[in-house]
Design a protein that fits this description.
This protein is of the alpha+beta class and about 60 residues long. It is about 25% helix and about 35% strand. A 3-stranded mixed β-sheet has the order 2-1-3, with no helix packed on it. The termini are close together.
Length: about 60
């Protein structure tokens, strides 16, 4: 099981979603991760736009 949380400043523009899905398919071709997107006001640094947290359970 793979679970991804992504935290986004400024919403969820289509080009961001498309880029993330492309990378998911590249790095996890045999898995469809559970993906939760959360809009936030700010992240750790003013220049950060997206923060990604991944949890993978390997049997």
């Amino acid at each position: 099981m793979i679970h991804v949380n992504s935290y986004h400043v400024g919403g969820f523009p289509p080009e961001v979603n498309e880029a993330m899905v492309k990378r998911y398919r590249q790095y996890m071709p045999n898995h469809a991760p559970i993906w939760t997107q959360v809009g936030v006001e700010a992240l750790g640094l003013p220049t950060m736009r997206v923060e990604i947290r991944v949890t993978a359970i390997i049997p």
